[in-house]
Amino acid sequence: MKDEVRLIEIDGRLVGVTGLRAVFEELLREGTDDAASLRRALLERVRAKNYVPESLTAAYADALYHAFERHRRGEDDDRERPGMTWRGIARELIQWYPTVDTGACDGCMKCLDFCSFGVFAYARESETVHVEHPYACVVGCSLCGTICGPRAISFPPLSYLDELIKSMG
Question: What integer is the mean pLDDT of 30-40?
């Protein structure tokens, strides 16, 4: 299975980091609690699959450590954030997000692995994917629907966004 890419903020910029969830889970299993050891281990393991510029080593270490601590607490930085806007409109007012036909979903989790914004979650009991955080979806993005083999993911028509833009004046 392809490694997941997660976005974290490093030195004021969002950066995609490959395999971060797997690194976090490994470190949780190992039970390392020392902050300095965790920072070193995070950097070392992230560098195995990602380029980390030497000049940003400290910034990466800090960002990875804080992301790990949020993960440990069960929080997730990739979810909806109050105050997000799109073209000046509060994100919560924009009805742009996927819908999953659970009858068609085969539970392959390609959408869950693909979406780095945490829109989807897996339901073990039904072995299907569902939309957990709809407003974390990037307005206008529908790429997850194109990688869905059974075509279980749908979006509003793009004309919805065209009308929204027109209504803004």
Answer: 89
The structural domains of the chain, with segments of one domain joined by +, span: 5-72, 85-167
Asked whether the CA dihedral 21, 22, 27, 30 is positive or negative, the reply is positive
- pLDDT, tens digit (0-9, with 9 covering 90-100), for 57-93: 999 999 899 888 888 887 654 454 556 788 888 888 8
From the CB of residue 10, how many other CB atoms can be counted at a distance below 10 Å? 19
Q: What is the mean pLDDT of the chain?
A: 85
Q: Are strands 89-90 and 99-100 parallel, antiparallel or unpaired?
A: unpaired
> Does 136 score more than 60 pLDDT?
yes
- What pLDDT is attached to residue 14? 62
Is the whole-model pTM more than 0.70? no
The CATH fold assigned to 85-167 is: Alpha-Beta Plaits (3.30.70)
